[in-house]
User: Fold this.
Amino acid sequence: MLLHGSANLFARVGLETLVGSGSWFTQSLRAGTLRSCAYGQVEKNHQRAQINWLLILDQSNDSSYLRMIDNLAFEAGLHGAKFLLAGVEKDSALFPLLRQSGFCVYGWERFWRMKPLPLKLSAQKMGVWEKPSAGDVHEYHKFRNKQLPPAMRAIASADGRSLPDYVLWIDHAIAGYADVKIFGKKAVLYPVLTNDLKDPRMCLLSLAARLPEAVQDRYISQTGAQQGLEGALENIAEAAAARREQMVKYFSVVEKAPLGVLNHSSENSHPDPVAPYVHSSKL
Assistant:
């Protein structure tokens, strides 16, 4: 998440301006009229926002980190986000600063790079990965609520999506689901599989086989809710990045409550705690 040097900044911002969706914003922290000391970018997805990267030019000053993070959180709230996410290695110098800024750990994530797919994969019996339909919404949410812990479930439900990209069906029941992000010739898979699969390795391979032929590099995201995939991933992939702690900072959102919410009395024989008191002599 940390960039090093202005060259990385200009390359990253320039590239994302050309190919991105425009669902992010970039902020800078200035130490003077013409001198910036920190940059940061946040990607927003409905009520969920996530820090993409930070660039601190004066890394000896912790206040630059803290002020930049607070500014990104404030701006994300103005854009309608309910919380701000960040991913950082636990032994990084940024980890205690995020904690100081109000972030807490809710999970972890690790990326694996898949090895080339076996040639005889198509001849083997695999689980059926299909595009979900509107009729699968109830079964999908029931499966997700069972597989994900409450903290991750709350964050996943804030992206505004009712269905994932793929659903795995085994014996007419959902056994997993996955989201896929494709960047040119690279793709990242975000699978969530049930823990009682007989062959999770084959299920992951069959999911990778559903990608377009133009994709050459395939990556898999493993989270704390999918610790059981460790053995299957070691057989078909190699660790591509160190484990990152997933952190979240929740915002306090002021929402107006309708007056009817406060009035719980529905019978005329009971007093109305919301209505003003009028003495009977003045009626």
User: Anything to note?
Assistant: The two ends are 69 Å apart (CA to CA).
